[in-house]
UniProtKB/TrEMBL annotation:
Transmembrane annotation, as ranges: 167-187, 193-212, 224-243
PANTHER family, sorted: PHOTOSYSTEM I IRON-SULFUR CENTER, PHOTOSYSTEM I IRON-SULFUR CENTER-RELATED
Name of the protein in its database record: 4Fe-4S dicluster domain-containing protein
Organism of provenance: Lentzea flaviverrucosa
Presence of the UniProt keyword tRNA-binding in the record: no
Amino acid sequence: MPVATPAVTTSPLRSATQLLFRSFPFPTEPGLRVFGNPDRTSPVFVTGNFDHTVRLVSRVLRDYDCYLLVAPTDGVNVWCASAGGHFGVDQVEAAIKLSGIDDLVDHHRLVLPRLTTPGVDPKEVRRRTGWRVVFGPIDIADLPTWLDESFPRLVSDRVTFPLRTRVEMGIGAGLWPAGLLGVPSLLIAGWKAGLAVMALSYVLSVLFAVVYPRLPTKPGLPQAIPLAAITGAIGFGAAAVLGQGLFGLIFWPVVMAGVGALVALDFPSWSPTDVCKQELLCFLYPATLAPPGFLPTVDEPACIAGCDICVKVCPKGALTLNMDSKAFLNDPDGCISCFACVQQCPVDAIS
């Protein structure tokens, strides 16, 4: 009989470090976690080996008799790992083999996070391992309700990016403009200027996170250009008021414009509501499954009438069923090019 996994403890220092360096991988040991007193009928959950995610999932699952397979996803969070090719069939297969779960349960059903739908092909998982995939809710906080009311049925869910999460992301996202512009500023203009640029990067990053969903322009360059112009003008004005010389009147507008542009360009890559749509991100990370600007196309003759799997897995609700009960992209602007509908279509009718 497997030994139960010890209670998860979180030190303030560990949490603060992972908050500040959220953009860096924080791997934990892959393999099997056991909660309560599971038997051969107990549910089997799967997640990635991003330490923060494993701790969040473990806090919920500790109230259940179940198993948790931690897949080797390079310490990357579930959404980024799935969209970037780090959480797919290979990783699910590895988790099954690493855990020895085949010997612990009689059923062959895995519960995966909903945000793995862009990267995990259930048909291929079943072909290679014999296990069937079920997708749970997007938010781990909704897992208890789903287990009590809907398990193992797939239900519609929408990805959100609430204020608290945006601020947390803004704190971590500020590292990039702070490092890319703060360090050169320190070398060029001295330590005071360098520290000022770093501090301003963090402040602007968090402020941008707060207002991000309410901006009238689309993420990416449409937001970066005006923000760069505004921050550059503020930099010039501040330098003039403080009586800076020619160097300061050139340095501060250029640096502040760079801070504004970097914050606006980088932040969408942190957003679960926009990440896959960013052409810059797809260029920097070619392992991303969907090509830049991808929009799903439905082969209506091949589509199964009444099948709504693609509608339910779409994290933005961009798909619906038409008058013939076939899948239809009703909201192209809402589509985030995540590839989930392509991966989850049981008859490969979406491309």
